[in-house]
Amino acid sequence: MLLYHFSFLSLSTLEMSLFLATMPLPPAFLLATQSFLGEEAARRLFSAMQEPATVSIRLNPAKTGLCAQAPTPAPCACTRVPWCTSGYYLQERPRFTFDPLLHAGCYYVQEASSMFLEQVVTQLLEHLPLAPEEVPAALDLCAAPGGKSTHLRSLLPDESLLVANEVIRSRAHILCENLTKWGHPGTVITRNDPADFGALPSCFDLILTDVPCSGEGMFRKEPAALEAWSTQNVLLCQQRQRRIVADVWPSLKPGGLLIYSTCTYNTAENEENIRWICRELGAEAVALEVPDEWHLTGNLLSGESFPVYRFFPHLTRGEGFFLAVVRRHSPIPAQSATPPSASRRTKEQSHPMSRPWLQQPAEYEWVLRGTRYTARLRRHRALTEQLERSLHVLQAGVEVGEVKGKDLVPSHALAMSSALCPDAFEHIPLDGAQATAYLRREALVLPPDAPSGYLLVTHQGVPLGFVKNIGNRANNLYPSEWRIRM
Description:
The protein is an alpha+beta fold and about 475 residues long.
């Protein structure tokens, strides 16, 4: 790779040598970056990388209207992220762990540059070739921990289905937690290798591939990425990224969009891969409208003009980020997914509670797996069953409750879901100290007039979870694996 044959380059200023003393950047990284940015721009980038990282959050539009006050971590003042209507910069980093509204899914702590995803969805989604009455389907292929999945879910049409996938078991559980807290019922979570999606030809209208990368853009936030960096690892990442995209490519519909993103700077993992996708897989890079005042940078490959979008911390307020969008034009091989078999269709159950727990209950079907009931949107039935035949599905729809003896114990996922009927349970408001105690899974002392049975505890009007009041005490039903341990 000519990009890394840079013996003719040198760090020509004393200032660049000083950078090695403040945050030790690998000399090979400095030289390679200088080779495609030029000396002056590289100097400014390396200087910006010595500054503290920005802190930003993105609000959940499905929950912010419930709050008694804006769900931003007080007392941090905030300013809006220009390319994201729900994104805000904070002046300082608060103790997020102890904010009940974070655990309630009212906002997500996310790097500002990656919120640029909003521009792709808002500008291009309406141009997808959807048939009448067709339910849009989107896939976030490398989804953990869930920042882009929660964002994508908020941006997609409400009737669409989002499939969020993560191949690594431990990270898949984190993804489940974050999407559960975000609370949208039109979500399926899977744990599969990208190659497994080849069994779903022409399935998705939109695929997001935030591919594993060398992480150069996160050096000042993630020391582990800095320690693991090498020129060899960059090229290994490039080949892995190509395999991931090639594996999932058959599942993209003709005319569908694939979003490719990384948090790294080099052109090997970015522009060179987009050029490869267009040449080898039959794709066309798609342009977005971007205001000049956002100071994004375009294609850095000499002689190439296809559109890409780069964030550099010396030009924009955020970390390093790269994004490009490609549209599929090549025909799909002559094959089709097996239609749902009547003998394998999920058996719908009648719900066993005395009053509705869900808003618009007629839109859902109830599925019983073992002792657990899940509510799934009827409009997603065919696609969800297709996914279950081909993939390892961890979660689909909203887990509503678990049968224990004669009781149906409401699930924490139900409390987090926007599908929850607000009048299904009595509400017990908690102040900040009580909410933190609840999130630690400590015992609560309820008001003496609190009714017995299952109650929904809230903070600033937002559900936090359930307790069971048995008179002399209230059993805390917050998931033990999610409790605050600090």
